[in-house]
Write a structure and sequence with these properties.
Strand content: 5-15%
Number of strands: 2
Keywords: Membrane, Transmembrane, Transmembrane helix
Distance between the termini: 26 Å
Order of helices and strands: HHEEH
């Protein structure tokens, strides 16, 4: 017998994405009310703030560390002056840092989700 609120995909291989309901503050601080997928989803997007911040700091560090050097020379003397920050190198380094941190954070969250799902299955099998 079919349930009324269950949606069926139009084609056999097609899956319907799960709708994520927003968390309220009271639901966030209660235990056992939300499934592990929703909490890991919230943790993933909250952690993206840290990933963006660290990528920005890394790009700024590279930009300030590798400054542009302009050297002027003539017949009698040679003068070296700094021209400023290397913004393009900092942007590229920040983008690469963001990519690396994004992949590491995604792997950590996927492993955490795998642990939670396997624990749920283990606890469900022992009941």
């Amino acid at each position: 017998m079919e349930q009324q609120n269950e949606e069926k995909p139009e084609q056999p291989g097609e899956t319907i994405p799960k709708k994520v309901e927003p968390l309220t503050v009271s639901e966030l601080f209660t235990l056992g009310r939300k499934p592990a997928e929703d909490l890991v989803y919230l943790l993933f997007w909250t952690g993206m703030i840290g990933v963006l911040y660290n990528a920005f700091v890394f790009g700024k560090y590279i930009s300030l560390t590798f400054t542009l050097m302009n050297t002027f020379s003539s017949d009698f003397y040679e003068t070296t002056t700094t021209g400023g920050d290397h913004v393009l190198l900092g942007f590229v380094a920040g983008a690469i840092g963001f990519g690396v941190l994004f992949v590491l954070w995604k792997v950590c969250c996927e492993l955490l989700l795998l642990i939670f799902k396997s624990l749920q299955k283990y606890v469900g099998s022992n009941d």
